[in-house]
Design brief:
Archaeosine Trna-guanine Transglycosylase, Chain: A, domain 4; 2 domains; 5-stranded mixed beta sheet; amino-acid biosynthesis
């Protein structure tokens, strides 16, 4: 069947991206993993690195790799516990597959949705991924299938990739599939299927275009990709869907050209992040800062350091939303709010100290900032957005 092609278009501008690669692009016909399509994707990643860009890779394929290791025992391929065991066996093979293409280190990061719902673990995961990027490594993220029962059933790496894109403040979510992009119907079964190049918003009509999985290896389909694009759009991250088996398309991608489908974001990434910070519920705790610290925060671009803190009111845990106040006209006035990297008891012990003294005071450190600038939004004195 002669499937119509998507038109070539400009790729959205980006500096940091999350690239999701599904099992259909990695699994070999005879079992195990293949470099057939992984090589082209790796060349795109390498070209992006040379251009000074950062990529977090969300890679499937662990179950397929594990199955190949025990294919002499077919009974090991059935049942949830067995699939979890296969994922554990195959994880090292997935990392080894990607490491063979790069001189830079490849790091494995296993996550579950629970890790990303829990604020403390969310902060830990984000800090780890950011540090790996700062070190020049390629993080390879996957669901922790050995313990994430629900996620393994859902095969939800598309949605995981969207969550990771928000987690690391990515500019772009790239989803590599075995189909060119979104069509008005399944192009494999409908001769009149038309390519959809640009999606301004994912409406019920767009969702109705999603078909089932195109491969017997992966567990996701077009519907999960649209779900992922919806999540990314809400976080201000654009998504592009492209064919990872198309070598010419990958070369275009490295030249900032797309032959696939572009899903627009709902506003900018910064706007989405700041909106959430402005309206997320507070734990009820307040951090009080001196006038100099308040001016630095109001100027934009500054993080809250322990040296400017003069007091704590209330209680809160690491990862909680807190209000930041300063004394104005003898009244404590809210000037900012954000996510605290430290619990209230810890902030009380490091208040007024230099950042490099945190570890000495606590015996450990979660970083030099109490509230990082990416987790902070400034407010006008009356409490409205500044």
């Amino acid at each position: 069947m002669n499937v119509p092609r998507h038109a070539e278009q400009a790729l959205p501008r980006w500096r940091r991206a999350v690239l999701k690669v599904g099992s259909s692009l990695l699994a070999a016909n005879g079992g195990g993993l293949s470099t057939r399509y992984a090589l082209g994707l790796a060349e795109f990643i390498a070209a992006s690195h040379r251009a000074g860009r950062e990529i977090v890779l969300v890679s499937s394929g662990a179950v397929a790799a594990g199955r190949a290791l025990v294919r002499a025992q077919p009974e090991a391929a059935h049942g949830l516990a067995a699939r979890q065991a296969l994922a554990a066996l195959g994880q090292t093979t997935v990392v080894a597959l990607w490491q063979r293409f790069f001189d830079r280190p490849v790091a494995q990061v296993l996550l579950t949705h629970d890790d990303l719902r829990n604020r403390r673990r969310y902060l830990n995961a984000r800090a780890t991924l950011r540090e790996l990027l700062a070190l020049g490594a390629l993080p390879v993220v996957n669901e922790n299938d050995t313990v994430a029962v629900d996620e393994l059933k859902l095969g939800d790496n598309d949605n995981l990739a969207a969550i990771v894109a928000a987690l690391v403040d990515a500019d772009l979510l790239l989803i590599a599939s075995d189909i060119d992009g979104l069509y008005s119907a399944n192009p494999r079964t409908h001769a009149d299927a038309a390519p959809i190049d640009d999606v301004a918003a994912i409406t019920p009509a767009i969702l109705a275009m999603a078909g089932g999985a195109g491969s017997g290896v992966g567990t996701g389909g077009m519907h999960t990709k649209l779900e992922a694009a919806t999540k990314a759009a809400a976080a201000g991250v654009e998504t592009v869907l492209f064919n990872g088996t198309d070598a010419d398309g990958l070369r275009l991608l490295a030249a900032d050209r797309l032959r696939g489908t572009r899903f627009r974001a709902e506003g900018t990434r910064l706007h989405a992040r700041k909106y959430w910070l402005r309206h997320a519920p507070s734990a009820g705790g307040r951090i009080r800062v001196d006038a100099g610290c308040a001016r630095a925060l109001a100027g934009g671009g500054a993080s809250l350091l322990p040296g400017g803190i003069v007091g704590i009111d209330g209680d809160f845990a690491r990862g909680d939303m807190v209000e930041i106040e300063t004394l104005r006209d003898e009244t404590w006035t809210r000037v900012a709010r954000g996510i605290s990297q430290y619990a209230a008891s810890e902030v009380r012990r490091i208040a007024g100290r230099k950042s490099h003294e945190i570890e000495a005071a606590l015996g450990y450190s979660y970083g030099e900032t109490v509230v990082h600038r990416d987790d902070l939004v400034c407010l006008a004195p009356q409490g409205t957005a500044a």
